[in-house]
Amino acid sequence: MKQRYVNLICFVLALLSGILTFSLKYHVLDKEKQLKKIYSDITQNQKEMHGLKTDWASLTNPEDLRIQAKQIRAKPIRAEQIIHIHQLAEKPVPIPPKKPEFKEDDNDF
Amino acid sequence: MIFKREKSTFYETCQEIPLKKMDKWRYLDMTTRVRLKSAALRCLWVGGFFMIAYCLILGRLFQLTIMDYHGRDYTRPMGSSFSLKRYNILDRNGVLLASSMPSTDLSVNPDLVKGDPKEIAHNIALALNNVEEKDVYSAITSSAGFKYIKRKLSPAERNNINYLGYPFLSEFPGEYRTYPHRNLISHILGGVDIDNIGISGIEKAYDQHLQDSDIQLSLDVSVQEMVYNALIQGIEKFKAQGALAIVMDINNGEVLASVSLPDYNPNIPAKKTGKERFNQVTLGTYEFGSIFKLFNTALGLESKVIKIDDIFDASKPLKLKGAKAIEDYRGKNRPLSVTEILMYSSNIGSALMGLKIGWERQKEFFGRFGFYEKLPIALPERGQPQYIKKDKWNEVESSRLAYGYGISVTPLHLIAAVASLANGGIYHVPTFIKGGNKDQIETRVIDENVSQTMRHLMWAVVNYELDKNSPVALYAVGGKTGSRQALANGRYVEGSLRTTFVGAFPMNNPQYIVLVSYDDPKKVKETHMFNTAGWNAKATGLQIIGEIAPYLGVIPVPEWKQPAYITRAIDRYNESKKGH
Fold first, then answer.
1. Pairing of strands B512-519, B242-249
2. What residues of chain B lie within 8 A of the CB of A64, using their CB?
3. From the list B178, B229, B474, which residue is nearest A54 (CB)?
4. What is the CATH number that goes with domain B224-579?
5. Do A53 and B96 touch (CB under 8 A)?
6. Tens digit of pLDDT for each residue in B441-477?
7. Which CATH homologous superfamily contains domain B89-216?
8. ipTM for the predicted complex
9. CA angle at residue B492 from B490 to B496, to 5 degrees?
10. Which of A66, A77, A87 sits opposite B229 (nearest CB)?
11. Closest Cα to residue B409, out of B526, B272, B289, B328?
């Protein structure tokens, strides 16, 4: 009787593992299909990004930016605008506190 | 028969006595027992085999998933990622300068063509832009098994061809090179042929490298544009035939900008002419005239033949045996100090210095700057300097060489040499690659103290008549101008000049050096009908410095301390000015 149970368990296990392997295989195939799609999307995105980078380089051509800067009246940096860090004041100059303004209501109490 | 174990059991007559398994075995005949034994053995072998196989699989699984995993990717490769046959060229900040774009090439297999070739050729030519019907006809009637009809098809052209549906036409994935900055860096980038093989510039120099990875140049596209823009303005203003400019990092030889005009659009290579294709910066060799007075002075001080306070008599033209008299352009007609010789660019003074120094020293000194050989740069366009044959070098020639006559070098030779005079005496071979000189062994060409003196002298040359309130004055620019009759077909052209300015900044701690040169600038109203370098090349050079210095983060020099010999020379100039 004991052996029959063992055989039965083995058979059930074999069957289960068969079903599991079968379903796993199809699951993996499905995942591979998804992966393939992702890879192809990545390639397509890389291709588009490459094209966009070239477009960006073309659109941000300094020659064109100079023309656009003129339109928004941007001015180039002047020499006087640049100083060495040592030329800066050591501590920020404190802003003097504002004198409290006299209010008529203050005398009410 | 009663067995021992069943002795105690009572059985009735004819009652079946149950036999246990072992008992059954005992009553089997010998043959059956042997057969069963061998069957059991076979089962054991098969079972054992499967057991070992399972153990192996389990072991391998354990090894792959637990022991050896370490984040490895065991997935099957799923198609290749996007890659092109030729990689990008980038500027020093990573801005794209040249790139490849995927395209489609159209070809035909003439053996498979069926139908009237004239009609087919007509239809195909209609479907494509800029393709002649006769070219298509000759392709489809060719005896070759394969012929390209057009490369780099546009999407619209592809649609048209697919619509025709000719089975003998094939489309191949190809790629084409594109230069987003058009003319801006044309000469340095160079170009590729129809098969994407580099034929000039960086494209040729790094052809193999570009098939494996990107390349980053030392150029800065913004600096390049500022220089380009200033030169375009200058050409228009001074009505010059052409112009060139270079900006170089004085401390490592990396070129930040290199412009040569006229130029061309590398996206339309077929349209360029010979003059446009010519890179004046690396290939053109020119006599730079008075700029060579810097080398003459540096050599005099380096060899200790000349002292900074020496005076040379430039009051009258210098006559040497068997040579034309040497004269000064707008000369001072008085004895001049070494500082004044450079400030007023005196040919007589320089020639006298040259004679004192001696031609042997001069010959050796020029060699230190590589003035006799092509520059060891990667670009294929490299000019061979021209100079007097070394065996003909004598006093007369030496006196001419002292002020830059009789030797032609490329602008790149010149800027690298002047850079070494100002940067503390170290010569760097110019490079167009970012970090290209990292492993270079430093070559000292002059003493550090001589370089310090040269910096002061160069500062005096630029600043003695410069408006102190001009923004460029804050950058303590030091340099030298040079004007020399332009050569055409091996002869000097009367009235036609090549004017050059080379200037480094800030002179208290030089960081960058700029060279500007015009080909045949005209005498125009704005320059009071003068066309020498001080009126055009220097003006453009200072304009460029004023624009690029804030961009490059160069901090203005609030106070400039000059040595006594400079103060004396400037005071003398101011006095003479008052006298007028």
1. antiparallel
2. none
3. B178
4. 3.40.710.10
5. yes
6. 889 999 999 999 999 999 999 998 888 777 788 899 9
7. Penicillin-binding protein 2a (Domain 2) (3.90.1310.10)
8. 0.71
9. 130
10. A66
11. B289
